[in-house]
């Protein structure tokens, strides 16, 4: 049952219906007279129906209102109503410059606007077809503006004029994993603690960030000291430049380029940000897949900096939430609980560099290459690249990277092949001078292809080939050679492909990823990964799942092969049982598993089986709590080892509007602080999860999509019985890294019938309103001075209002446990108004 608070609105409708309103021909059409003779009242003269007498009339004053533009709801703000200049019986909403800036009007429309009330309010007549209507019963100002006068927008994306930079604040995000391993025979007990995170501060449009990572290892009884390492891996600041659809970054960064390899530097960059474009025009994010033999920790890093870290259960894993701003080669390390380690690299090459017709995308950077320990390691460099959509199907792109002893130039062309996908070709020429050597010059040639085959339900996410000549050097190759005094590992050829294909008729989905890299002076490396998933029905047993994963890694002359075959059968409500067989270079393991959920936030998995050394068993549990994401796991192998692991991932957000401890996936990312009016345990639903407001009435919705319209709502099915909300949905479009802020009007407290008497024994007029200190309507007087009042708290003071003014106040008692169903209260003169009432009135 919905508990959304619409009591005043319901009473309005009841009164309007009962009174049978009619319009006098001598009055304006929207002025209503009421036939009070039809009311069953003892005192028909003691009635206050002024608020109902003119349809849609709003008394002059300021009101906190949501603004609904056509079918879209904008954030709540204070809207002032002034008497109309043309009709003394009307009022008109003042749309200030701040409000107009959020409507997303086109520039040519803004130039032609006219203003009234000393230039502070826009005249809607200057926007042909525009209309405004206020409705206090829904706390909404309804605006209708022809679509032709508004900037481009979609159902999930807003133009820059509606982007919210958020509020000032400090954030502390962390991801910590711990594990211990005890061998059953020889060896020492080992334990390790890994952590990484972000410390940040927001000030206006600026985001200040510091990344950290740490590691602790020790083998008990070995005599070796505890190995600890803590590093501040990166200090930087960034902000959005909405007018340019670009992102400005200052400090330590990694070169983000579609043409040149990534390397670390200290300086500044300004680049077009695809995230600022509508979702259908955004970029490609890399993904990583593999198979964990045991409960394992997966660490994704680049040039020593940890980008992503998580614990996974035994079996296939697929990481798909890496940032699409990630570029270059990524190092992946899978640390198993039995002490073995998988290592491989993933290339994050992007889809063809194509640009919309007439548009230009660019990336500019200036600085000095630097090392992981914050030291400079080269000369000042400058780089710039662009992509220009020269026609409907062709894009021209190019760029250069220049320093004293290293220069590279690139040029290419891209073609949209329509039904056949998209393809691009580019050439890069490098010219480098190493100490003691002649100038080295070489070329690199690359072809990229991407295609979505809708008719066949398949997608070539990325396919590419690159050949580099012997004397071609990337900037990273040059810096490494300059530092070490010798050239190593020059890239020769690279093939890569990522393919998805669904066979819906037979319930089969496939995923294939392949990369092959050859070098001029070191062994080749290969990475194969195949995933097949088949869904079947057997009589009354539905959605039986069979999956196969297989992989091969060849890296630094080390071969790592493995396969994983599993069968999963639904068992009851949300549970399933399964069987799997896993094989790698070292072992073959059979497992029977049971998976279930304790509730919507907690799931667990048990398994038991056999390996070459004997019986095995493991357990894995995950809890998506409001304060953190928690994991715990344990493994046992007969005559092998016993291992345990723990993980915690979350964050703290501190703002002038409140603080909260919460879970988080994207470190330092965008989040939305929800204020539930100081009321705790209000269930807030956003990003597919429900979090409860804390003791201060605050809740953070983490991992909010940047530059994307996000909706957050109150879960009415889980709302406490003593709480009601005036509106259960808010929305926000936030810039990257912002701490957004939205407030729900929540009415919390006891509900009861109250009889109100004035000092002379009479009672307030029929239709008089009762309001609390926050300006919320809590009840309306009916016949004989009675009202059903909501949101009553001990010692609370409420005011009774009629003829547009506060007339007297009610003081509720401190104890409610002995109260009868009807409470008699004296409405006392307003002698000492609480400060909160004055704030509301202002």
Written description of the protein model:
It is found in: Cell outer membrane. Its main location: membrane. Residues 33-177 form the PapC N-terminal domain. Belongs to the fimbrial export usher family. It is a multi-pass membrane protein. It is a single chain. With 842 residues, this protein is mainly beta. Among the domains are: 7-160, PapC, N-terminal domain (Ubiquitin-like (UB roll), Roll), CATH 3.10.20.410; 669-746, Sandwich (Immunoglobulin-like), CATH 2.60.40.2610; 748-841, Immunoglobulin-like, CATH 2.60.40. The chain has five helices and 54 strands. The strands form ten sheets. The protein has a 24-stranded antiparallel β-barrel. Strand 21 (381-389) and strand 22 (394-402) form a beta hairpin. It starts with 6 loop residues before the first helix and ends with a helix. The model is unreliable at 1-35 (pLDDT under 50).
Q: What are the key terms here?
A:
transmembrane, Immunoglobulin-like, five-stranded mixed β-sheet, Outer membrane usher protein, mainly beta, membrane, 24-stranded antiparallel barrel, signal, transport, disordered N terminus, 842 residues, 53% strand, Ubiquitin-like (UB roll)
The rounded Rg comes to 33 Å
Shape: globular
Q: How widely separated are the two ends?
A: 36 Å
Detail the poorly predicted runs.
1-35
Structural class: mainly beta
How would you name the CATH homologous superfamily of one domain?
PapC, N-terminal domain
| Percent in strands | over 45%
The share of residues in helices is under 10%
Return the CATH topology of one domain: Ubiquitin-like (UB roll)
Total strands: the figure is: 54
Return the average pLDDT rounded to an integer: 83
CATH architecture of one domain: Roll
- Largest β-sheet summary: 24 strands, antiparallel, barrel
Count of DSSP helices?
Answer: 5
CATH class identity of one domain = Alpha Beta
Family: Belongs to the fimbrial export usher family.
Pfam family, one: PapC_C
Keywords: Cell outer membrane, Fimbrium biogenesis, Membrane, Signal, Transmembrane, Transmembrane beta strand, Transport
Main location: membrane
């Amino acid at each position: 049952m919905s508990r959304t608070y619409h009591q005043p609105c319901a009473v309005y409708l009841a009164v309007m219906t009962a009174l049978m309103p009619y319009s006098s021909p001598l009055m304006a059409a929207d002025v209503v007279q009421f036939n009070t003779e039809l009311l069953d009242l003892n005192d028909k003269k003691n009635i206050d129906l002024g608020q109902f007498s003119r349809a849609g009339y709003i008394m002059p004053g300021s009101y906190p209102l949501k603004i609904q533009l056509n079918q879209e709801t904008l954030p709540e703000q204070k809207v002032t109503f002034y008497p109309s200049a043309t009709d003394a019986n009307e009022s008109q909403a003042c749309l200030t410059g701040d409000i107009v800036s959020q409507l997303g009007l086109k520039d040519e429309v803004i130039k032609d606007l006219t203003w009234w009330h000393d230039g502070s309010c826009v005249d809607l007549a200057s926007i042909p077809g525009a209309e405004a209507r206020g409705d206090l019963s829904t706390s909404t100002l309804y605006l209708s503006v022809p679509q032709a006068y508004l900037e481009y927008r979609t159902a999930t994306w807003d133009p820059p004029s509606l982007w919210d930079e958020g509020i000032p604040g400090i954030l502390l995000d962390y991801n910590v994993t711990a594990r211990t391993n005890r061998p059953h025979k020889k060896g020492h007990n080992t334990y390790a603690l890994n952590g990484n995170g972000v410390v940040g501060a927001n000030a206006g449009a600026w985001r200040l960030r510091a990344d950290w990572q740490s590691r602790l290892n020790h083998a008990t009884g070995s005599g070796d000291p505890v190995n600890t390492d803590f590093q501040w891996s990166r200090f930087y600041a960034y902000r959005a430049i909405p007018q340019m659809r670009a992102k400005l970054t200052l400090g330590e960064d990694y070169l983000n380029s579609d043409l040149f390899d990534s390397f670390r530097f200290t300086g500044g960059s300004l680049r077009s940000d695809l995230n600022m474009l509508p979702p259908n025009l955004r970029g490609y994010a890399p993904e990583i897949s593999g198979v964990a033999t045991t409960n394992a920790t997966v660490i994704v890093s680049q040039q020593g900096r940890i980008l992503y870290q998580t614990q996974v259960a035994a079996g296939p894993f697929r990481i798909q939430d890496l940032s699409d701003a990630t570029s270059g080669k990524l190092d992946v390390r899978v640390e198993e609980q039995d002490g073995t380690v998988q290592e491989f690299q993933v290339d994050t090459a992007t889809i063809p560099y194509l640009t919309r017709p007439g548009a230009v995308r660019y990336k500019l950077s200036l600085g000095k290459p630097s090392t992981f320990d914050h030291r400079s390691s080269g000369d000042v460099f400058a780089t710039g690249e662009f992509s220009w959509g020269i026609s409907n199907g062709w894009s021209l792109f190019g760029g250069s990277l220049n320093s004293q002893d290293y220069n590279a130039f690139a040029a290419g062309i891209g073609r949209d092949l329509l039904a056949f996908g998209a393809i691009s070709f580019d050439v890069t020429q490098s010219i480098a001078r190493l100490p003691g050597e002649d100038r080295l010059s070489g070329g690199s040639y690359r072809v990229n292809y991407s295609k979505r085959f809708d008719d066949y339900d398949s997608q070539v996410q990325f396919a590419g080939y690159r050949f580099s000549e012997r004397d071609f050097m990337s900037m990273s190759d040059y810096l490494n050679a300059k530092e070490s005094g010798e050239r190593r590992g020059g890239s020769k050829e690279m093939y890569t492909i990522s393919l998805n294909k669904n066979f819906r008729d037979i319930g089969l989905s496939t995923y294939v990823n392949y990369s092959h890299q050859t070098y001029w002076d070191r062994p080749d490396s290969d990475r194969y990964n195949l995933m097949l998933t088949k869904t079947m029905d057997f009589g009354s047993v539905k959605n039986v799942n069979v999956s196969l994963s297989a992989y091969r890694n060849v890296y630094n002359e080390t071969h790592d092969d493995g396969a994983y075959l599993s069968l999963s059968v639904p068992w009851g409500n949300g549970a399933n049982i399964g069987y799997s067989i896993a094989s790698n270079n070292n072992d073959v393991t059979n497992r029977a598993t049971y998976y279930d959920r304790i509730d919507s936030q907690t799931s667990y998995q048990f398994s038991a089986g056999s390996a070459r050394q004997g019986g095995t068993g493991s357990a894995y549990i995950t809890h998506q709590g409001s304060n953190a994401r928690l994991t715990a796991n344990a493994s046992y192998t007969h005559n092998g080892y016993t291992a345990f692991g723990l993980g915690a991932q979350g964050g703290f957000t501190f703002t002038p509007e409140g603080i909260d401890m919460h879970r988080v996936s994207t470190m330092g990312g965008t989040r939305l602080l929800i204020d539930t009016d100081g009321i705790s345990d209000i269930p807030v639903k956003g990003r597919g999860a429900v979090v409860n407001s804390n003791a201060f009435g605050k809740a953070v919705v983490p991992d909010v999509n940047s530059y994307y319209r996000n909706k957050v709502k109150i879960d009415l099915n889980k709302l406490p019985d003593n709480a009601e909300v005036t509106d259960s949905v808010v929305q926000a479009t936030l810039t990257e890294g912002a701490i957004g802020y939205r407030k729900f009007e929540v009415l919390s407290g006891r509900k009861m019938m109250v009889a109100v008497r004035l000092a002379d024994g009479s009672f307030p007029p029929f239709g008089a309103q009762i309001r609390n200190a926050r300006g919320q309507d809590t009840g309306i007087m009916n016949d004989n001075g009675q009202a059903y009042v909501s949101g009553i708290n001990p010692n609370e003071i409420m005011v009774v209002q009629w003829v547009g003014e506060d007339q007297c106040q009610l003081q509720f008692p401190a104890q409610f446990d002995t109260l009868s169903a009807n409470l008699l209260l004296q409405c006392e003169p307003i002698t000492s108004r609480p400060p909160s009432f004055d704030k509301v009135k202002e």
